[in-house]
């Protein structure tokens, strides 16, 4: 297994000599090894790119800027295959735009990750038998910074292995000095606008990590639990009220029982007093619209310190807030006899006591959704706590207005816009304080004498504002998303709006990210950017899916189905992995990772390598200045230039539309089918022929097409394309800066396409006949072509050398009405009939059976088209061009059928 803990770029030796040897001049080189060695090429070229700073932004001051900031991975450990997908998709975009002449910036960086990183370091310390409290805050943070440095270096090495074209000179970290300045400015400004406040509210509490969580850091899982029905007696002894709860341990904090004000069952009990079982505390019966009178008994126990809805009811009725647990989920002094017990232990004991007192009516099985901490996995406790909050509604309204006015972000796929709006329209205030030591410390200071709070940019400013010396900074830090939601603009120099990078590269052109963090990150970046820059943070947000295993399951440690991208690279090379993951799914859809698909991508890379080796062996001595694709060209030359031109146009459009899967399909088909299987084979006639002028032209076309093809696939497969390109006749230092192929109307050649289509049909048909009757390609055959028109005959005549060579004919005759033997094998192509004399080749009866099967196939096609054209709904709605195409198919199939029927008649005659 590869060593994952090294910086791949930094450890490699100087490669300039190797590069110079690969491209000592602009002449074609033929020293390419028989097989491609991914490891050697990847190490060599990444170092070369880094040493020459090809990826640095700002080198084209007069060009249009294009920027992407990387979604910063957490410094919690290794990158996974999901990161590889996300980063590869971005690299494809940035490499394409760089080749198109843009001044590109792809800004790298990492996220401090707050609770996730602190948890990792605390686990490490526990293995040593110590806690963070043993070290103290300052010493503990030294440990976390050391962890950060180690894993940031690991991530650098992984980025290098993946071939990412990042501008490391602008690398950022969410706890660096610039981000810290931005975070403080945002906090202070929001506080002074009244959009940040400190208050006592019910929040999500992680008792394992002992910190608050935001709503979207809670994962809800279906749990098999119980519903406990309890009897709360009236103080006057006149009866009782039945309530139900899934968490009987919280009843120790009950301060009321609520009923609906219009519930006739309880109208005479409102205002009366109940006696809380176990504790003996007197609590009132109150009326509140929150209660659903049709649900259960219509009476609800109210626990303001342990339920967010009960908290709101408590505020309306001025109820006490009794917290019965401590920060670790252990029952506190308010829990009376259960003090010191874990919450789960307390539940078991209190149920037994309720049963003994005759208060427990029944227990029923109950399946319900229970919140768990995304980080620690602990069951989240709704917990009354004093925390810092962002008032979300004003910020959300600005983002909603921008989106609905057409001034917002373009979501790809567009269905995610609805997802985004639905969340932001219903967003609740955001709890931003965390009871951690690792993170941005809250810029608030408290007076130990007066208890006042002073929010400021620094302690000096807080002292100046307060006029006090006994100030102590808030111990808590900010939610990690509070800093990462400033990432698109704070990384570019904001809050200094005169920063050259901010002026040039903001807003970013696109954010590429998974759909799973649309709430955590995407939405928050949008409202923060609008509030503090007055601009949306990026023009587009491309949402890709998640990488799942071959069975469609989410990758996880518990399943043991995770994929380390470096293991894949070690086995198959970076290019194969990049090509597979980037082209293997459509926008917004999950990708099933199959190793056999990576193997197929590796085979594709080898196909490119082998085709390039052939080309180079036939380009010896050709210089870049020699390449000339004008003048007299063969049909195959003109056809491949047309197909390259067409493919360049379509690939550019598809990449701009983030249609990676379709891009991959087009590239694969063009390279494997058009270039390798057809053009290179056709080119051999000129390359091996005696006509020096024809050979020179085909050499030029071959060099030109291979060069442009390598450029088109370079963003997907950067290493192998650089290795091959450096051997080709070229100009420039690197393919990474080579001009992107652009559409050229002069290369359009539909006539060549028509000719090649006919030639390919003829060759395929003859080969199919050979296969059907087991006639090997090595055996020469007689071939007669009956052309359906002068135009078809002219094409066949002009290209008889191709037909003779690839059909391997002993004799070949073409005409409008050539003389033919009585017994032949035949095939029909558009515009012509192919006849192979049967003598010595086949069994005539078997040939009749084959032709009858062909008639059945053609009958089905004719019937299908006639049925479609007979459908009045189709004819009324379909575009005229589509109808015309269907009618052409009908005529073509019918003509072919008639010819096949005629051949059957001939054979039987």
UniProtKB/TrEMBL annotation:
Sequence motif 'KMSKS' region, residues: 554-558
Quaternary data: Monomer.
GO MF entries: valine-tRNA ligase activity
Functional description taken from the UniProt entry: Catalyzes the attachment of valine to tRNA(Val). As ValRS can inadvertently accommodate and process structurally similar amino acids such as threonine, to avoid such errors, it has a 'posttransfer' editing activity that hydrolyzes mischarged Thr-tRNA(Val) in a tRNA-dependent manner.
Residues annotated as binding ATP: 557
Upper classification of the organism: Bacteria, Bacillati, Bacillota, Bacilli, Bacillales
Pfam families per UniProt: Anticodon_1, tRNA-synt_1, Val_tRNA-synt_C
Top-rank taxon, per record: Bacteria
Name this protein carries in UniProt: Valine--tRNA ligase
Gene source species: Paenibacillus auburnensis
Domain Valyl-tRNA synthetase tRNA-binding arm: 843-907
Main location: cytoplasm
All copies of domain Aminoacyl-tRNA synthetase class Ia, residue ranges: 44-593
Residues of the Methionyl/Valyl/Leucyl/Isoleucyl-tRNA synthetase anticodon-binding domain: 637-784
Assigned EC number: 6.1.1.9
Segments carrying motif 'HIGH' region: 73-83
PROSITE patterns: AA_TRNA_LIGASE_I (PS00178)
Coiled coil, from the record: 841-868
Family: Belongs to the class-I aminoacyl-tRNA synthetase family. ValS type 1 subfamily.
